[in-house]
């Protein structure tokens, strides 16, 4: 699994700019992310490049829960401070994961049956990371809104 995951993360990091540009084009026109429509292209792309280039730190972390918490609460705080509503910040994560996998798939990373089996394992791990990330993002948004005096 690690060899395939290494390949997946290596492709994501090496092609972070291209994947980020595709993600940015998608998010700036998606009906579910209207707050991103006004974000300047450079800022939008830089946000995703930073996210993708730092993903390996949590993907291969020995203290994954703690690092995931730090990684995703920082993401949440940045998006909150940018004025991005929580549902849009979460959907942006879904799109990041989708673009990461679509890019890897387009590069024919899943060639042999063994690669495909390892791809399923890597997909499961990636999904768990993003799912826990969504929990941490929503938790952080809740804390920030309470701090700022918003009542639910």
Provide structural commentary:
- By secondary structure, the protein is mainly alpha-helical.
- It has one domain: Histidine kinase N-terminal domain (Globin-like, Orthogonal Bundle).
- It has six helices and no strands.
- It has helices at 2-14, 16-27, 41-59, 64-81, 86-106, 113-147.
- Helix 4 (64-81) packs across helix 6 (113-147).
- The longest helix has 35 residues, at 113-147.
- It is globular.
Looking at this protein, list some descriptive labels.
mainly alpha; Globin-like; 0% strand
Q: Which helices and strands, and how do they pair?
A:
Blueprint: H1 2-14, H2 16-27, H3 41-59, H4 64-81, H5 86-106, H6 113-147
Helical content stands at: over 70%
**Total count of strands:** 0
Q: What count of helical segments does DSSP give?
A: 6
Enumerate the spans where pLDDT stays under 50 for 5 or more consecutive residues.
Answer: none
How does the helix and strand content classify structurally?
A: mainly alpha
How large is the share of residues in beta strands?
under 5%
Q: What is the CATH superfamily?
A: Histidine kinase N-terminal domain
Distance between the termini: 43 Å
CATH topology: Globin-like
CATH architecture call: Orthogonal Bundle
Average pLDDT, all residues: 89
Outline: globular
Cα-based radius of gyration, to the nearest Å: 16 Å
- The succession of helices and strands, N to C, reads HHHHHH
Q: How many independent structural domains?
A: 1
Major pleated sheet: none
CATH classification, class level = Mainly Alpha
